[in-house]
Amino acid sequence: MGGRADAALRAVIVDDQALVRTGFRMLLMADGIEVVGEASTGGEAVAVVRRTRPNVVLMDIRMPEMDGIEATRRIVADATCDTRVIILTTYDLDEYVYAALSAGASGFLLKDVTPEHLTAAVRLVQASDALLAPNITRRLIERFAPRTSVKVAVHRDLSELTPRELEVLRLLATGLSNAELADHLTLSAATVKTHVARILAKLGLRDRVQAVVLAYETGLISPGEQPESR
């Protein structure tokens, strides 16, 4: 690995196993990513993040005292902090991963991730891009989202979206990429990108993963729903 200097990218590693933290720290530092803190519990993670203000947190889910889901929720809820959370898990389609995404995580990585994938994922999330493709997020949500014929009350923030933005959000949640959205709506890729950016800004969301989660949890789209053909 190149060990390029990247002082602007700061990370915190959270896992209750010291060997896991050491391994991830070595991989990140070898690629020029600064590790500004470590924690072995969710409570420690929240404190370390508040003190160091990292760009990205690698967060284990199952830990003593406070798990990674609650820690993620507290970190993301801090409006003064723009830290993004990547969940570390052993199983990809895991109900705990779904809970973590609902709590505000920007994606997840398997603990046996390759060094190249790990550092690329940290850089991707730090650049405000979603770590998960919409179709992967959708598969995860459809497996664990409550299946009910009664839709929950639509989040009040959705009222701020224009009809076109609501349409884009609904299609995004079905797993369409920007290119597929552009083709489906007969719009340019740049226009679609602008719509997505405005949706995230209006709803106070950090990335597309959160937009997909919100679309399902507000009842804007139901599990199994497909985009209408044109």
Task: Give a structural overview.
α4 (95-103) links the parallel β4 (84-89) and β5 (107-110). The protein has helices at residues 18-30, 42-52, 68-77, 95-103, 115-126, 134-144, 163-173, 178-185, 189-203, 208-217, and strands spanning 6-14, 33-39, 56-60, 84-89, 107-110. Helices cover 48% and strands 13% of the residues. It folds into 2 domains: 6-131, Rossmann fold (3-Layer(aba) Sandwich); 143-217, Winged helix-like DNA-binding domain superfamily/Winged helix DNA-binding domain (Arc Repressor Mutant, subunit A, Orthogonal Bundle). By secondary structure, it is of the alpha/beta class. The model is unreliable at 1-6 and 148-154 (pLDDT under 50). The chain is built from 10 helices and 5 strands; from the N terminus they run βαβαβαβαβαααααα.
Classification by helices and strands? alpha/beta
Unreliable stretches, pLDDT < 50, 5 or more residues? 1-6, 148-154
Q: What share of residues are in beta strands?
A: 5-15%
Rg over CA atoms = 18 Å
- State the end-to-end distance: 47 Å
Number of domains: 2
CATH class of the largest domain: Alpha Beta
Work out the helicity level: 40-55%
Order of strands across the biggest sheet? Answer: 2-1-3-4-5
Beta-strand segment tally: 5
Shape: globular
The CATH superfamily name of the largest domain is Response regulator
Order of helices and strands: EHEHEHEHEHHHHHH
* Known CATH architecture of the largest domain: 3-Layer(aba) Sandwich
Most strands sheet: 5 strands, parallel
Note the total helix count.
10
What would the CATH topology of the largest domain be?
Rossmann fold
What's the mean pLDDT score?
A: 83
